[in-house]
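Throughout this chapter, every protein is written as a compact record of paired, labelled lines. The reader may check this reading against the record printed directly beneath this paragraph:
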Amino acid sequence: MRDGTAHRRRTRTAGALLSALALLTAATGCGGSAENAESPDKTSVSATADRVEPLADPAKPQLPVTVGSSDGKKVTVRAAERIVPLSGSLSEIVFTLGLGDRVVARDITATFAQAEKLPVVTRNHDVSAESVLSLKPDLVLAETTTGPDEAMEQIRDAGVPVLVVDPALGLDDVGPRIQAVADALGVPADGKRLTQRSEDRIAAVRKAIPAHEEHPRVAFLYLRGSASVYLIGGRGSGATSLLEAAGAVDAGAESGLEKDFTTITTEALAQAAPDAILVMTKGLESVGGIDGLVKIPGVAQTPAGMERRVVSIEDGVLLNYGPRTDEVLKSIVDQLYGDAK
């Protein structure tokens, strides 16, 4: 079960990370020098198009429905004409179900092309209840990490149905999250369709991974150079499932890092000994690209640093575990094993 203090602490940690990622995504000046700092040395940047692919012939919502929410409540959805998803991942699911024309606002982490012109109803990822309510939504989609609690209560007190969905922590969460949203929107059959499509595409990527004897050790680093934040992911960072699916080893988790994220130290990097480093694109830009990354104490001494081997994925999609996870996984595979193809 996902209830209890330990789980809430972990999801709050994940939420704090997402908040920082949102700031990086929204920043306009943090990566100006990074474009000139890239090196051709075994380094590539994700080519994943920042668009979602809606289902063909999407169904119309059949409402009302009553569904269970992850906060333990029962939520009755009577209309879904004005939807406000409060995370980029939930926005992605709604749009991919073919219901994007009903979305009237977005969270700051919803960066894909179809959502980019929608008004933002979060401030540095914290929800603005006033902004949400001003759009007169008939359904709000949130995650257990969405906050602050006072804002969420204000939205509920206004009579707006709020569906809370468990956060995404791995590949096993893709289907349940899609189905939870689809059920609440009155399109359960499309939820099954999208789940099947997503799982089939992930399976196809895994099947096409080039044969390799060694399992590369990959460290997931969260970087925010503008705030001097440099973290290495451990168990529960959210990256382990992707790395294992790509045939790699999560170097941070395998080296014994029990916390979700730990401040980078020379000792921690030496213990992890990564062959490659996984980063988010804006995070890499924030430290000045590859040249800046290897200046972080301890990075240059790792096999990854010596080879300048970095896997870079767009911030707004890496940890979503949703309909585009196959694209994320394929990009990781291509960057890890490009020489083997």
User: Anything to note?
Assistant: The chain has a mean pLDDT of 87. The two ends are 41 Å apart (CA to CA).
